[in-house]
Amino acid sequence: MSVDRNFIARDMLKLNEYLHYRTIDVSSIKELARRWHPKTYFAAPAKTGNHRALGDIRDSIAELAYYRQALFISAATNSTAEESNG
Q1: Which of 8, 13, 59, 67 is the most exposed place for a label (fewest CB within 10 A)?
Q2: Residue 43 carries which DSSP code?
Q3: What is the pTM of this model?
Q4: What is the Cα–Cα distance from 48 to 66, expressed in whole angstroms?
């Protein structure tokens, strides 16, 4: 991830100015789910597997959206989907 960010900082200055200095590494969240919530991990959406930049980005966004919904506390309900599902 730092290689990607260094590339952006070097070659995409306007994009770099737009991005926050904190970044989210979806694979770290995925690894935490694998260790702490295996049921949630194994229910994650399948990747397209096309290994093209845009496809990988879309897969990562979908995966992060899934983990956000499945693992993190919702402000509206103050519970996670996993707690609701048992």
Answers
A1: 13
A2: T
A3: 0.71
A4: 15
Beta strand ranges found along the chain (DSSP E): none
Q: Report CA-CA distances (Å) from 65 to 6, 9, 15, 68.
A: 25, 26, 22, 5
Task: Kindly list the averaged pLDDT for each block of 10 residues, start to end, along the chain of length 86.
Answer: 85 92 90 96 90 90 95 72 59
Instruction: Choose, from 21, 41, 66, 67, the residue flagged as catalytic.
Output: 21
Residue 29 identity (one-letter amino acid)? I
**If you search the block for the tokens 């770099």, which residue do you land on?**
16
Task: Give, in order, the Cα–Cα distances in Å from 12 to each of 6, 16, 75, 83.
Answer: 10, 6, 35, 42
DSSP state of 72: S
Is 18 a known active-site residue?
Answer: no
Q: Report DSSP state, residue 65.
A: H
Work out the end-to-end distance of the chain between its first and last CA atoms, rounded to an integer number of angstroms.
Answer: 34
